[in-house]
Structures
1.
Amino acid sequence: MTEITSSQKQAELLKDQGNLYFKKNRLGAAIEAYTEAITLRPDVPIYWTNRALCHRKRNDWERVEADCWKALELDKKSVKAHYMLGLALLQSERYEEAVKQLEKALELGRGGKPTNYMVEEIWQEVAKARYSEWEQVSGPWLQRLKELRKFCEKALQESYENTAGKVKESKGFLNVGNLDDILTATGKVDTSMQADEAKDKRNELNLELSALRNSYQDQLQTLSKVFEKVSQQDIPGEIPEYLCCKITMDIFRDPVITPSGVTYERAVLLEHLNKVGRFDPLTRAPLQPDQLVANLAVKEAVQVYLSEHGWAYKSN
C-alpha cells in the first residue's frame, strides 16, 4: 500500500514538473516528465492527454493519436482526448472519424460548462471538419454535374440543328432566306401564282422551324431547372432566419428557448445574463438561467439542414 501511494505521489510530482516545462515551451523536457509519470502510473488518463498535448504542439499527429486512444481506454469521457484525437484524424483527412470524435468532445464539453472557451474551440473544429468533408464530396460532384450539363446542352443543340436541316431539306431547300432566294432555289420565278406558292411554302417551313425552335428552348429551360434542382443543396446560399440566433445571426449550435418564446444560442444568452442583466434581450422580460429550456425541435432542424447543406458550416 505504501509503495502504491509513493508511486502516485512521484507520478503527480512528475506531472506538475511536466506542466511547468510545458508552460515554458520546453516540450522535450515536458514529454520526458509525462513519460516517467506514465511509466509509474499508466492507468492515469491525464498523463496521456498531457503528453498528447505536447505532441500536438510539435505537430506529431501520429503520437497524438496513439496517446489519445490510450487515454480513452482509461476514460471514455475525456473531452481533451476526444478533441485531440479528432484533430489528429483531421490531419490524415479521415474526416468521418474526425467528426465523430470532435462531436463527442463537443457533447461532453457542453454537458459540463456550456460557456467554456473550449466548447467554442471544439465547435470551430467540428465545423471545419464537416465543411472539409462536404467539400471533398461536393467539389468533384459539382464538376461532374457541370460536365454532364454541357454534354446534354450540346446533344439538344445537335438534335435541334439536325431536325431543322431535315425539315428544310424535305421542303426542297436548305436556306430559309428571302423570297428571291427561295424562288431561285425552287426554279419558280415566272408568275405571281408561282410566287404565292413559294410564299406559302416559306410560311409553312417557318412555322415548322418556329415550333422546333420553341421546343428546343423549352427543353433547354427544363434541363436548366433539373440541374439547378439537383445542385441546389451544394451551392452556398442564405441560411433560413429561423435557424439562426437572434443575437449573433449565426446558425444555432445549442439553441434554448425562453419563457417569452424566443430562441437563442445558449452560450451567448448565458453571457448576456451574466454580464448585461437578468432579462430577455428582445422582450426585456425578467429571465434567470434556470428558466432556459433546450429547443430540441430547432436543434434537430439545424442538424437536418447542415446534413443537407454542408457549406453552411463555413458561415460560422
2.
Amino acid sequence: EAGSSEALAVGGQCLGDASAGGRDGDSTGRACGWCNSTDGSSLVCSQCKAVTYCNRTCQRQHWKGGHKQTCAAGAAAAPGSPSSAALQPDPDPDVKGQAGEWAAMHLKYIHKLITTQSARMKRMPYIEDSDHLQRHMAAGITKTLTQDFTWSLSFRPKFYADLMYEGFLSIASELSDDGLLVLMPKLHSERCALQWPDLHVSSKAKKRCGRYRLTVNRDFEAVLTGITKQHGDNWFFGPIKETLRHLYSQPGVFASTAVSFELWEGDALVAGEIGLVTGANYTSLSGFFTTDGSGTVQICAMAKALDSLGFEMLDLGMVMEYKLLFGAKSMPRAQFLDCYRAGRDRPSPALAGLSWDCKTLLRPRVNVTREEVPVIA
C-alpha cells in the first residue's frame, strides 16, 4: 500500500523519460548529456528540449544525477509551458529534497498533471496544506472518507504534525520508477491501539529483559539507519525522514514531536523505533531489531514506560497479527478517534533523556505504580 507502479508524465513525457529527436530517431549530432559521446545521441528530453542522450540508460542516469532539478527551469521557458508566474517556488520551504523539487514547479500544476494521468489519485481526497486540512475536518472527512488514504504534495513539518493531531498517520508513496513521491495521509478504517490494562508481556520477554535498558532520544539517527537497513525505504523515503528530523529537533513547536526509543545490550543498539508524541498519545511509526527477541522486549518495555509516565494510549497504526499478541485491539475509526482525541490536548509527558532498566519495567517484584517506576536520568 506504500507505492504504485503508475508512470506519470510531466511536460508530455514520462517522468525521467526521453523522446526520440529528429525524424525516425535520427542522431542530432550533439553530445550525450550523460556520457558526452557524440555517437548516436538520438534521444531528446521532451520536457526542456535542451539535452540529448545516446539511449534511455544514459537519460535515466542523468535524470537521477541532477537533470531532474534543472529540467523544470528549462521547461518553464519552452513554448507552450506554464508561465513563469505559474512556476514560482513554493514559499518558505521547510524540508530539503522533495520539498525543494516541488518548489521548482507550482503545486497546483503538478496536482493537475497527476490527477489527469492517474484515475486512482483523482478518486482519492487531496489535502493541500494545514488550512485545507481544517476545511476537510469541518466538512466531516473522518465520517465520509470511504477509503483509508488521502494524498498531498506537501511534506512540511507543520502540516505533517497537524495531520497527526487529527489522527492521520502519513506515509510516502512512490508513484513512478523515477522517484515521484507524494505524501499519503492515512486514516485507517480499522486502527490498532494498545490500552495499558490490555498489555501482554510474554514469558520469553520477561526472561530476556534483564540484559537490556531502554532509552529515549539517545541516538535518533542510529534508529533511522537501523529502520532503513532492515526494511529498506518502503514508505520511509527521504522526505519523511527529513520531516521527522525537523519534528525531532524542535520539540513542542508543532502539534506532534518525533522521538526515538532505543534498546541497548551493553553499548550495542539492538532494537529501536521512531514515533510521534501528540499530547498524551504516542504513535509508533516504524522500528527495527537486530537480535532474536529484542524487538518484543523493546515494544513491551516502551509500553510500560509510557504507561508509567502518564501517556493515554499507544497507537500502533495498521492492524497486524504480531501487534495483537501484545494485547492491542483493532478499533473502528470512530472509536479510535474518540480515544485519540481524549489524549491529544493533554500536556505531553517529558521523555527526552530518560532511561529504564528493562528488568525493572517488565519483572517488578511488586505491583508498581506510575510514580514508583525507577527512571534513570
3.
Amino acid sequence: MSHHVFWGLQTTPCTEAGHRTEYSRELEYDTRIAGAALGGACPSAAHDGKVRLFMKVDDMETIVCTLVPKEIPQVYLDIRLESKSMVSFWCTGGYKVHITGYRTVDESSADALDDMFYDPESLLTDGDDSDDGSFDLGEDDSADGSEDEDESDDDTWVTMNNKVVGKLAPKGKIVELPDDDKDESNRKRKAADSSEGKQNKKKKDANTKSASAGAGKDALGDLYAKKKAQEAAAAKAVKAPQPKKEEKPKPTGPPRENRKKGVVVVDTKVGTGKVATRGTKVQMHYTGKLKSTNKVFDSSRGSRPFKFRLGSGEVIAGWDIGVEGMKVGGKRTLHIPAAAGYGRDGAGDDIPPNADLVFDVECLGVQKK
C-alpha cells in the first residue's frame, strides 16, 4: 500500500552581494510540488518588488513562479518530479519562500516514513552526507569560503512542523542540532519573530498615520472647494439678473428673387425632384397675366399641362431663362420684360405691343435629353 507524505522546505533569497543559496538533492521517491508561499522578509536581499522561485531538474533550469507581496503571496502548483532526478531550489527577492508538497512511498518504507516527520533530510534523498551529520544543499560563492557553524543572529534556521531541527551553515550545508540546542534555537527564533512582528506593527502604524494625514488633507480640500462653490453661488444670486435677449423672429420676407438677363425669377416653392436643364423636356402648368393690368390672358390650369424642350427656342426667351434650374414640384413667378416676351409686335388681341408679362409656373415633370 502506498502513502502520501507531506514535506516542506524554506528557501532563502540571494543577497545584495549576489550570494545564492541552493537546496539540492537527488530524489529517492516520486515527488510532487503542491504550492509556494511568501515567508519572512529579508531586508539584506536585493529585490525589485517581486519574489521569484527557481528550480533546476538535472540540467534544465526554470522559474517555478513569481510572488508579489500583498498581491500574490501564495500560488498553488502541481509539479511532478520523478525519482532519481537531481533537483535544486533557490529564490530571489526580499522574502523567503516556503515550498510544500508530498511524495508517495510504499508501506515497505516504514522507517523512511517515521524519519520524515523530524529529519529535514527526508525531503531529499541521502547523498554524500558528511561525517558530521550535515548534508550539502548546494555551493556557496562567499568570498572567504570559511565554514562557521556557530549560532548568530543571522543564522537561517531549518524548521519542520514549525520547530527548529537544524540551521543553514556556509557552503549551503544544513547542520542538524542536538536536542538541547534545538530548544534554545526555538526560543531565539520565537524572540526574533516577535521582534520582527513589532517592527512590522510600527511600520503599519506609521503607514496608517500617513494615510490618515492624507485623508485629512483631502477632507480639508473638499471643505475648501465646497465653501468656494457656496460663495460663488451666493455672488451669482446677488448679481442683478440680466434681461434675456428677445429672439427676433426669422424674417419670412418675400420669396427668393433672382434676376437673369432682365427676367426676375421668384421661387415661391422649391421643388425636390429632378432639375430642369437646357435640352430637357419639361412639363408645366402656368398662368399668364399682363403686368400693367394683372389681367389673365392665358392659363393651362383645368386642361392638359404644357410641354416644351428647354433652351431650344420653342417658347419666348423669358420662359427659357426663367424655367431653367427649377426642380419637379417647384413653383415660380416669372417677371418678363417685353424684350424677353413678345416685344414690339405683341401677340394677338390679348397681349399688346411692348407689354411686360407675369407668369405663375409649376414644374410637373422633367424628362432626360
